[in-house]
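Dear support,

I submitted the protein below through the web form. The confirmation email said the job was done, but the results page showed an empty box. After a refresh the structure appeared. I'm attaching both so you can tell me whether what I see now is the final result or a partial one.
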Amino acid sequence: MPRKATLARTGPPSPGFHAVRTPDSTEEEPRVGLEISAGKLYQLLRCGAVSVADFRCLDRASKHHVRTLCLHACAQRLHETAARTPRRRYPEYP
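What the results page shows now:
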């Protein structure tokens, strides 16, 4: 059962003003259970739309698969960045 937000007051409310509701510090953000294809997750990781810090894996097999996808996506992004970056030319020494 989700916790209800508690009212944080420093004193009685002033007449004519509404009480401000602030979330309790122990209240958690709602979670969503989700299943996604490996190909779509790879696309999202590769373009930077999602990071592995944004979610957690529920089992070891998924964690291993996500780790592999992340490594491949990072390598692909580095390869694309290196291809776009002009190479530095060093002066030739006699």
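Response: this is the final, complete result; the empty box was a page-load delay. The chain has a mean pLDDT of 81.
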